[in-house]
Amino acid sequence: MDLEYQADVDPSWGCLKEAQVWWPYKKGFLRSHNTVPADAPINSSVELRWKMEVGEKMCDPESFAHFLVSAKLLHKDFEAILKDVEWLQTNWKPDVILNQ
């Protein structure tokens, strides 16, 4: 074994940066698995990961495990990801029917 060996970086590797955003439960029901609008000014790749089925009842969040959906954002430029996260936090939310 050569202890001095260093692998060459694959030039096709994109070296993408990643961020995750999580939305907690809100007391109510999940109406739909809504998506990020196609015309949203987002440059990152966004993958939504739903943790509940449509129609399921949610309680008030009481632990870290009580989250409804997460968004995984990927982009080469981390500053672009931060702008996209800010847009999501301001302009998008899960489609929930709240119980008062």
Task: State the gist of this model.
14% of the residues lie in helices and 34% in strands. With 100 residues, it is α+β, with helices and mostly antiparallel strands.
Description:
By secondary structure, this protein is of the alpha+beta class. The chain has one domain (17-98). It is built from 1 helix and 6 strands, in the order E-E-E-E-E-H-E. The model has no long low-confidence stretch (mean pLDDT 93).
Beta strand %: 25-35%
Q: What order do the SSEs take from the amino end to the carboxyl end, as H and E?
A: EEEEEHE
How many separate structural domains?
Answer: 1
User: Overall mean pLDDT score?
Assistant: 93
Described by strand count, sense and barrel closure, the largest sheet is:
3 strands, antiparallel
| Total number of beta strands | 6
Give a quick set of tags describing it:
100 residues, alpha+beta, 1 helix, elongated
Question: How is the topology of this model organized?
Answer:
Layout: E1 17-24, E2 28-32, E3 45-50, E4 57-58, E5 67-75, H1 78-91, E6 95-98
Antiparallel strand pairs: 1-5, 2-4, 2-6, 3-5
